[in-house]
Amino acid sequence: MTQPTNPPAHLPATMQVLERGWLSSNNILFGGRSQTALIDSGYHTHAAQTLALVQYALQGRPLERLINTHLHSDHCGGNAVLQQAYDCRTTIPASEAQKVSVWDEDALSFSATGQQCARFSFDDTIEAGATLTLGDMEWQVLGAPGHDPHSLILFCPEERILISADALWQNGFGVVFPELVGESGFAEVRATLELIATLDVHVVIPGHGAPFNGVQQALDVAFSRIDYLSADPVRNAQNAVKVLLKFLLLDRQRIALAELPQLLSQMHILLEANRRFLQQPLPVLTQWAIAQLVKVGAAVIEGDLLVNRV
After folding, report:
1. For residue 4, is pLDDT > 80?
2. In sequence order, what E strands does the chain have?
């Protein structure tokens, strides 16, 4: 079992980043005098590992609160396991509450992306404008639509720390999913980046990848990328197809080549992106996506299998 990463020297002792691989989002654990809390819970198939990491990091303390920045499956897939283990108070974005209450997997994007998430419940909600006390620090809750219309980010002005989820990574941001189904997303990504640029951020804790300094450099990369994607929406659709296939491969590790067209056909959001932008027969699109992953070393073909590579 991978043990939690040690907090960088510039992070307060009351918070710890459990950096994960790209299948699961990072988990951010808070202690201190205030209640213990965890932001985001990783993917469904990593749930047992998530629980073990949290238990190790808490050193016998209970987990009292669980908060999701947004409800993509790689950020909330461990919710059910943590709730079973700790009966923790669970907080989700307010705009997602009805979908979770009735457990609408289509509206929650799980079915559309071909991903899994065990059913979980929630106790309360948060939205932009709220404040939270986590790790004995005050955090502002900010809206961050773009990658996901309902996503939130958290900023601590005193410590100059931004928990950016998938709104800002060191080398970009998450797939702009709304654009794939004919909804606005590019403008929202840009507005979120402009909001982040107004904050006095020293440390960014992204949803994926290591915490980093140098927010201006990351913003420059992100602004350049949104310029590139919005100039031709086909680019966003192509990126989404590659990401969805890679995520499937991260989950399964080895997939028979013959199965891939059928597996991709179950992803409604991929089919919609293809219908709107790419307009390729699914077997042709599948072969293109495989070739793209192999080209960059993200996968390798071994006999009749597509095999994941880091």
Report:
1. no
2. 15-18, 27-30, 37-39, 65-67, 89-93, 124-126, 131-134, 137-143, 152-156, 161-165, 203-206, 254-256, 299-302, 305-308
